[in-house]
Amino acid sequence: MALLSVEQLSVHAEKEEGDIRLLKSVSLELEKNEWTALMGPSGCGKTTLANAVMGFLKADTFCDYGTVTFDGIVNVPKQFGLDFLGSDPFENIRGKRMAYVMQNVREAFDPTDRIGAQIAELYEEDGFFEKRKKVNDFLERAQVKDPKKVSRSSPLEVSPGELQKIMIMAALEKDPELIILDEPFSALDPLSREQMTDELKKHEGMSVLLITHEPRTAKRLCQSILFMDEGTVSEKYSTAEVSEEEMISRMEL
User: Fold this and answer.
1) What's the rounded Cα separation, in Å, for the pair 153 and 111?
2) What is the pLDDT of residues 16-43, one digit of tens each?
């Protein structure tokens, strides 16, 4: 059985100009320990698909039909936090067994609270001094510049690259079985990319869905690739059989 299975997922958004179809009967599977790249032109639905899988649909976005199944647990995506629409089957696994690094990394942080205080939420069962030590250790492992200063800063005072490293490390902290990465290296320099890639590879057995516009990154990190266009997803290909030139052409459709 696949670790992640998306079946006939259809999603639309209600806009002033009318309803917009974002996902059109999308189906895909991701096996355990499989790294798959998801590629396609901007606006084709990649981030919407990631949000739907995690159960993070935006307020004006609705699932018409279809399901997302993680390790046998079935969910019908809805707007995150709307508990009155029914139970949330992913409530106890989201952020633990399945993790997400958003494309707009600032959306993942509370702009009114210090970075250190937000990282400390990962260690809610620990006491004050143990939390402080773990936060310091966390920032050291994330290899941010001046960890003490970052810990005392608000997200608005920290560069996007530093936030990306913190977000990746936070997503990995609970040793998830699945991580969805939406353009996770876009603000990182080459050395930081290698550092974060090494951190990802330490988690043996983890499945990865990597949304990227970078053919070289897809070929280097992933065994398989899915192309997306106008809300639909292609069959799965081996990255070894698809050239970088073809990837570029599929993103320019």
Assistant:
1) 10
2) 888 899 999 999 999 999 999 999 999 9
What's at 30, amino acid-wise?
Answer: L
CA 55 – CA 75 distance, rounded (Å): 8
Domains contained in the chain, number: 1
Angle between helices 160-172 and 190-201 (to 10 degrees): 10
| Radius of gyration for the alpha carbons in the chain, expressed in angstroms and rounded | 18
* Count of beta carbons in the 10 Å neighbourhood of residue 223: 15
Q: Residue 139's pLDDT is what? A: 97
Question: What span, in angstroms and rounded, lies between the C-alpha atoms of 55 and 49?
Answer: 10
Asked if the structure places residue 235 within a domain, the reply is: yes
Tens of pLDDT along 132-162?
Answer: 999 999 999 999 999 999 999 999 999 999 9
The answer as to whether 159 is a domain residue is no
Q: Residue 83 is part of which domain span?
A: 4-19+28-110+170-251
Does residue 129 form part of some domain?
no
Residue 79: CB atoms within 10 A of its CB come to 16
Identify residue 223 by its one-letter amino acid code. Q
The identity of residue 214, as a single letter, is E
Residue among 32, 26, 31 at smallest CA distance from 53: 26
**Residue 236 is part of a domain; what is its CATH number?**
3.40.50.300
**Contact of 103 with 182, CB cutoff 8 Å:** yes
Length of the chain counted residue by residue: 253
Q: Does residue 244 fall inside a structural domain?
A: yes
Name the burial class of residue 222, with classes exposed (0-12), middle (13-18) and buried (19+) by CB atoms within 10 angstroms of its CB: buried
Task: Report the 3 state secondary structure along 35-67.
Answer: EEEEECCCCCCHHHHHHHHHCCECCCEEEEEEE
> Is residue 87 predicted with pLDDT exceeding 50?
yes
